[in-house]
Amino acid sequence: MSHPVINADDCVACGACADACPMEVIEVEDVATVANPDACVGCGACQDACPAGAITEIAED
Ligand code: SF4
Ligand code: SF4
User: N or C: which end of the chain has fewer CB within 10 A?
Assistant: First the structure.
């Protein structure tokens, strides 16, 4: 399985990644977190949507 890796220092909590994700993997409160990594399909939409470059990779477990 794959899942996004989020750099919390770069995240501005805009919510774009959570909005872009078709699988509701990411939750954003004060910072984006990978709340549901098992649901990730590795599509990369969250990475493409992030304006801050905070999603650095789609990691494989
Ligand atoms: S890679 Fe796709 S499925 Fe996985 S967290 Fe990002 S947007 Fe969601
Ligand atoms: S799109 Fe990027 S900056 Fe916005 S909440 Fe997600 S990780 Fe943070």
Answer: C
